[in-house]
Amino acid sequence: MKDFLIIGGGVIGMMTAWQLAEAGHEVTLLERGPCGGEASWAGGGIVSPLYPWRHPAPISQLASWSEGRYPHLTAHLAEATGIDPEFRRQGLLYLDLEDEASAMAWSGRVDKPLSRIDAYAVYAREPRLVDGLEGGLWMPTLGSLRNPRLGQALRARLRALPGVTVREHCRVERLVVERGRVGGVETAAGRFTAGRVILCGGAWTAQFLAPLGIALPVRPVKGQMMVFRTPTVTGSRQWLERVVLRGGRYLIPRADGRVLVGSTLEEAGYDKTPTAEARESLYASAVSMLPALTECEIEHHWSGLRPGAPDGLPFIGEIPGVGGLFVNAGHYRNGLVLAPAATRLLVDELLGRAPILDPAPFRPAARLASAAALAATG
């Protein structure tokens, strides 16, 4: 019997397995598809909430802790695996922001660099942006990374660690719970046992708990994105160098010159089919910020499922009423952003260590009780 069994091979599941293994524990990780193949692959790779001042304080605390770890974490992975997640700290331009005063007030509270810049400074940073901009807000510390490569690097790191078993394309059929305690899972490949089980199944997490009579309010929220292939550039400047955000949509540059545009927010259940309507909307958003993209090929258009949760707060901790069962899910649009802190917070609980920050806002017990009471009165 392994010490820990993790269901879900996204960034959250893989980072959890990595930390537990490095602490000397034996870990089995089960993933229904390829590791890093769902939301961890489908997102954009911005290492910050898009509008951090609009989030509850606990999210900002997790995000701040994580942001400080990503440069070292990605450098370590690149050295250990030979796969570079391409972390870049080139900053973020906010254009036509409606709640600028709130943003500046937040910046002062958390001591985060954010400044108002004029049109000259905007175009000095990104000369190909649409004409007529009067200025914007500039966040110089924002970083981004190539999330599919992060997933590949984490998978390679786990494969090299002793005591870690990774089983891909292994669909979990049900949790095995006896006398109020989880002991493992049943899969098409047989039963896997462990002393403790951790649910990191993203948008699918609630499905594992429903047969136990536990209604975890985590649901799939569809998001569609596209990527443009820009012409090869000679010299140092690509068509876009920094993340740009306008009207809820963003452009993300890659080191090779590609430009991503995202993303939609759709309540469509588990349907991941890309749509013509979203394609047109994303294209319109992209060229409204960077008109030169009309000259570029749309290389790929895809969708993924985010794990939505009330107030955008993930559930992190032990599931009440089932001994040995833990969850780390519901990160919504911020799974990549929060992953280092969210996984560390749970590993601290699992190993009996002092937490990096207050875990109370994320603990499932009180939040599930509150949701059940609300449902009973509603």
Question: Outline of this structure?
Answer:
The chain has ten helices and 16 strands. The chain is of the alpha/beta class. It folds into two domains: 3-54 and 148-218 and 310-376, FAD/NAD(P)-binding domain (3-Layer(bba) Sandwich); 92-140 and 220-306, D-Amino Acid Oxidase, subunit A, domain 2 (D-Amino Acid Oxidase, Chain A, domain 2, 2-Layer Sandwich), CATH 3.30.9.10.
Stretches where pLDDT falls below 50 for ≥5 residues?
none
The assigned structural class equals alpha/beta
User: What is the CA–CA distance across the termini?
Assistant: 43 Å
Mean pLDDT: 93
The general outline is globular
SSE succession: EHEHHEHEHEHEEEEHEEEEHEEEHH
Describe the structure.
With 378 residues, the protein is of the alpha/beta class. It folds into 2 domains: 3-54 and 148-218 and 310-376, FAD/NAD(P)-binding domain, CATH 3.50.50; 92-140 and 220-306, D-Amino Acid Oxidase, subunit A, domain 2 (D-Amino Acid Oxidase, Chain A, domain 2). 32% of the residues lie in helices and 25% in strands. The protein has helices at 11-22, 39-42, 57-81, 100-110, 119-125, 147-160, 205-209, 276-289, 335-350, 364-377, and strands at residues 2-7, 27-30, 92-95, 115-118, 135-139, 164-167, 172-178, 181-187, 190-199, 219-229, 243-246, 249-253, 259-262, 297-308, 315-318, 325-329. A hairpin with a 2-residue loop joins β8 and β9. The mean pLDDT is 93. GO terms for molecular function: flavin adenine dinucleotide binding; glycine oxidase activity. InterPro entries: FAD-dep_OxRdtase (IPR006076), FAD/NAD-bd_sf (IPR036188), Gly_oxidase_ThiO (IPR012727).
